[in-house]
Amino acid sequence: MTPARGGARVELAGWGWRHSGRSRWSLRGVDLLIEPGERVLLLGASGAGKSTLLHAMAGLTGESGAVSGDEEGRLRIDGGPAAASRGGVALVSQDPETQLVMARSGDDAAFGPENLGLERAEIWARVREALEEVGFGYGPDRPTAALSGGEKQRLVLAGALAMRPRLLLLDEPTANLDRAGAARVRRVLEHLLRSSEATMVLVEHRVAEVVGDAANADEAGEAVADLVDRVVVVEPGAGVVADGEPAAVFAGHGRSLADQGVWVPGREPRPSVRPGAAGPAVIEAAGCTARAPGGIGLLGAPGAPVLHGVDAAVHPGTATALTGPNGAGKSTLLGLLAGLDAPQDGTVAPRGRLAGVSTRPLAKWPARRLARHVGTVFQHAEDQFVTGSVRDELAFAPRRAGLSEGETRRRVDELLERLRLTGLADVHPFTLSGGEKRRLSVATALSSGASHAPDVLLLDEPTFGQDTRTWRELVELLSELRADGRAVVTATHDAALLRCFTDVEIGLSGGYARPPAARSEAGAALLADRPPSARSRERSGSGPDGRNDADGAHRSPPGADADRCGERGRRRVSGRGEGERR
Q1: What b-and-e string marks burial along 477-487, b requiring 16 or more CB atoms within 10 Å of the CB?
Q2: What DSSP element (H or E) covers 399?
Q3: What distances in angstroms separate CA 209 from CA 183, 203, 224, one per listed residue?
Q4: In this predicted model, what pLDDT tens digit does every residue of 51-105 receive, in sequence order?
Q5: Where are the alpha helices (DSSP H) in 196-262?
Q6: Which residues contact 120 (CB under 8 A, 6 or more apart)?
Q7: Integer angstrom CA distances of residue 102 from 99, 110, 145, 454
Q8: Whole-number pLDDT of residue 216
Q9: What is the 3-state secondary structure of 496-542?
Q10: 147: DSSP letter
Q11: What pLDDT digit, counting tens, does each position of 217-251 carry?
C-alpha cells in the first residue's frame, strides 16, 4: 500500500456532543490533542461516546453533518473544521451495513477514491491492492448482497484503505471477523501505519488483541500486532479520564477501567452460568444445501453454493455454537434453523415438542406460529426494531404474550437495569450505539420472561460490541434461558462465549459442517447418546475434518474450560415435558 501524505493533527478543546432528542450529553468537556502519526486506542464502557467521537472527527456531526444534535467547544483537523478534511479522513464504522453504497464489491471499494477525483487507472489499482490486502476472497464483481457480515467488514475496510487517508478512524474493525481474518487485518494495519505516517484512532473492546505485549498473546500463543502507542479513556457524559502509554494507563487505571467494563488484559469477566438438562431434538436439519444471492440483473449468474449437505440438530436445555471463517455459512445455517429461509435441497423439520405443534417444515409455518416457538436475533439489529422507543421495544413482546401491564413493567425495568439501558428508555432504538442496539435486540427476545420465551432462540453474534459488564449480563440471561429448558443457538466468533456458554460446537468451513464437538460435559453426554446411524453419517460426510475449530482454534476437552468462566453451578434444571403445552 502506497504511503499516505503524512498524518493529520486532531485537536479538541472543551468539546461536547448531545444527540437530537437526548437530555444527556454523550461527551462533554473533551480536551484532546493527537499529533500526526500517533496511533490512539480509544477506550470506555459501552455507550461512553466512542463512536460519537469518531463520527465527529470524520466531519459527520455539526450543522453540515449527517448526525444532528447540539455541539459545544472546538474540534479541528489540521487546524480547520472536520467537515473540510473529509477527503483525507476515512471512517470504518461499527456496522459495515451502513457504509455499503454500491451493488458490486469493486464499485463499493472504489466509491471513496472516485470521490477524490482520481484517474480511473489509479482508482482500480488501489481497489485491487486494498481488496487483496484485507483478504477479501472474491473478485470485484461479487454482489455486496451476497456477502456475510465479516466479508462486508473486510470490504468496507478495503474501501477506507483505498483512499490512502491521513486520518484513519476505525470502530471495532475486526469485530465480525474470524480469528485468522482479524489477525490478518491487524497485520495490514500495522504495516500500513509503519510505512506511512497516517494518524489512527481505533475503538476496540478486546484490548489484548491490539496492544503488542509479550504478555498479551492470542489463544494460539502468537504475539498480537503492536497497533497502538497511546490509550485514551473517556467516560459517558464526560471527557478524557486517562491518557498515556498503554502500559502506564493499564498499570495506573487497570482496576477502575475493568470496573467500568473495559476489556483489560487479565481482568476478563467471569459470568455465573447455569447448565441445562438436554432433551430430545426439537429441530433437525438434514442434507441442507443453500446458495448465496445471484448476480445483479436479469442475466446475472446464479449464486454460488453456501452450504453443501449440512446436517444439524438443536436440543432443548443446550447451547449450540456455529463457528467458522467468514463466509463459511454460519448465518445461512442459522436462518435455515430459524425457519426464515428454506434450503434449496434437504429439510429443516420440527422434532419432539415442536412436532407436536406442526409437522410441516419450519419454513412453511405461519409467521405468528413460528415467532411464538422459534425466536431470532439478527446480525443487523435494526432489522427487528418495530417501535419508537427502547421501553416500547421491550414491552412489545410481553404485551403480545398477554402479560399484565404490571408484569410487563417489571420485566422491562429489570432488563433496562441489567443491560444498562435505563437512561435510554425513551430514545429511539435507531439512535443507539452498536453495542446498545445489540443488547436491545437480545433483550427483546427475552422480555416476555422464561415462561413465555420461545422454545428455541437463535442469535447471530449476540455479544458483538459489548463491554465486560454487559457481556456478562447477556451470557447470564442466555444461561437462565438454557437452564429453563430452552435451546439456544449462536453464530459467533467470540472465544470467551465458546468457553463459558457452549455445550455443542458445529464448525463450518467452505459450506461443509464438521461433526459436532462437545464443549462441556453436558455436550459430551448428549453426543454420546445420539443414535449410531447419526454418528456414522457424520463421519462419512464429504466435508473437511480435523481436530481444530473451523476458524483454526484448537478444541478443548469437554469440561476443560468450565472453571475459567466462574461458577457454572451444579443444579440441573429439567426442561418441559414433550407433551406439555404453553
Answers
A1: bbbbbbbbbbb
A2: helix 390-400
A3: 8, 12, 6
A4: 999 999 999 987 777 788 899 999 999 999 988 887 789 999 878 888 888 999 9
A5: 246-260
A6: none
A7: 9, 9, 10, 37
A8: 45
A9: HHHHHCCCEEEEEECCEECCCEECCHHHHHHHHCCCHHHHHHHHCCC
A10: -
A11: 444 444 445 789 899 999 888 899 999 998 899 88
Cβ contact 151:136 at 8 Å = yes
Alpha-carbon span 504 to 521, nearest angstrom: 10
- Identify the three-state secondary structure at position 214: coil
Encode 111-139: b = buried (16+ Cβ within 10 Å), e = exposed: bbbeeeebeeeebbebbbebbebbbbebe
- 153 beta partners: none
**Lookup: cell for 240:** 478524557
In the sheet with 305-314, reading across from the earlier edge strand, the strands are 305-314, 283-291, 345-350
Using DSSP, state whether 150 is helix, strand or coil.
helix
Q: Is 40 left (phi over 0), alpha (psi -120 to 50) or beta?
A: beta
Alpha-carbon distance 551 to 549, whole Å?
A: 5
- In this structure, what DSSP letter does residue 151 have? H
Beta strands in 239-388 (DSSP E): 240-244, 283-291, 305-314, 319-323, 345-350, 374-377
Least confident residue range of 7-21, 80-94, 127-141, 537-551 = 537-551
C-beta of residue 331 within 8 angstroms of C-beta of residue 145: no
Question: CB-hemisphere CA count at 13 Å for 315?
Answer: 22
Nearest to 551 by CA among 397, 370, 255, 326: 326
Cα-flanking dihedrals φ and ψ of residue 551, to 5°?
-100, 15
Query: Which amino acid, residue 523?
Result: G
Report residue 258 CA to chain centroid gap: 21
Unique residue bearing C-alpha cell 447470564: 476
Lowest mean pLDDT among 84-98, 342-356, 544-558: 544-558
CA distance 433 to 87: 25
What residues contact 175, with CB distance under 8 A and at least 6 apart? Answer: 94, 153, 205, 464, 465
Chain centroid to Cα 100, Å, comes to: 17
Query: Model-level pTM?
Result: 0.77
Residues in the chain: 582
Q: Which of 216, 319, 325 is nearest to 263 (CA)?
A: 216
pLDDT, tens digit (0-9, with 9 covering 90-100), for 394-439: 999 888 878 889 999 999 999 999 888 998 999 999 888 878 888 8
Instruction: Match 443487523 to its residue by C-alpha cell.
Output: 380
Q: What type of residue sits at position 483?
A: A
Give the model's pLDDT for residue 295. Answer: 59
